[in-house]
Amino acid sequence: xxxxxxxxxxxxxxxxxxxxxxxxxxxxxxxxxxxxxxxxxxxxxxxxxxxxxxxxxxxxxxxxxxxxxxxxxxxxxxxxxxxxxxxxxxxxxxxxxxxxxxxxxxxxxxxxxxxxxxxxxxxxxxxxxxxxxxxxxxxxxxxxxxxxxxxxxxxxxxxxxxxxxxxxxxxxxxxxxxxxxxxxxxxxxxxxxxxxxxxxxxxxxxxxxxxxxxxxxxxxxxxxxxxxxxxxxxxxxxxxxxxxxxxxxxxxxxxxxxxxxxxxxxxxxxxxxxxxxxxxxxxxxxxxxxxxxxxxxxxxxxxxxxxxxxxxxxxxxxxxxx
Length: 322
What we know:
By secondary structure, this protein is an alpha/beta fold. The chain has two domains: 2-119 and 264-321, Medium-chain alcohol dehydrogenases, catalytic domain (Quinone Oxidoreductase, Chain A, domain 1, Alpha-Beta Complex), CATH 3.90.180; 137-260, NAD(P)-binding Rossmann-like Domain (Rossmann fold), CATH 3.40.50. The protein has helices at residues 41-48, 112-132, 149-161, 172-180, 194-201, 219-225, 247-252, 263-267, 272-285, 302-310; strands at residues 2-6, 16-19, 29-39, 57-58, 62-70, 82-85, 95-99, 104-105, 140-143, 164-169, 185-188, 207-212, 226-234, 257-259, 293-298, 317-321. Helix 2 crosses helix 3 (149-161) and helix 2 (112-132) packs across helix 9.
């Protein structure tokens, strides 16, 4: 089968398409013939070495397809069933072997492409909104990168909850997209008066929570925009990692909280993944979440997909077609 591997960390050009033996599922495992593969910023962190993996390694965390082989002891899945997954390693391939409990069945109302595009990003919004800083409706929140794959889902989910989401994005076109998907307002991230405008929007009270996947470029701005005892939820590093969190800065910003959650922590909780997938699929079926797959690439064009993602040239979700 065809698969993408890296033998060292670096830029997009280090990814190689190679022929590898077709994997055989062991006890408790399932082989999935992939029909769509999600592309996520975490893939670029694995490739660059920001989040180190043992080398050589495959890349890709998310995908969907059809079960085509089953190992001993698997009784709840059958050959031919459509399944999806998130937070694996090696999804940039034509086939992948996964532990059966790491897979979720895809309902008829959801396509393979939608499942591959939404599971990791949707589960991210799920833990942000329901676990890290639970939202109940009526809150005013700040969400950076509101037109990205996670951002557009966050806009729609916030509107469904009755949350006033203020977004930021790098261009007016992206802001327009965020507004279309449920953001109450969206401001340009490069606006020199952004800090003042954010304070005005909150009546100079600040935001009780800020969800920030940008990292380095927005850290200080986010601290300034928090309310006293507010929470900064840092869940990504699109502009590079935050150099350091100084406790004195948290005190000066008003006894604020800083947290760095990861999806992997929630997935480790038994049953959480299945419950999250069900919540996401239900919201799709209800028409609450519209999955915007705005970029599609062939597997051999994965380097260009990473370049586009890292340069913030994309909106919504991107997928690979093996």
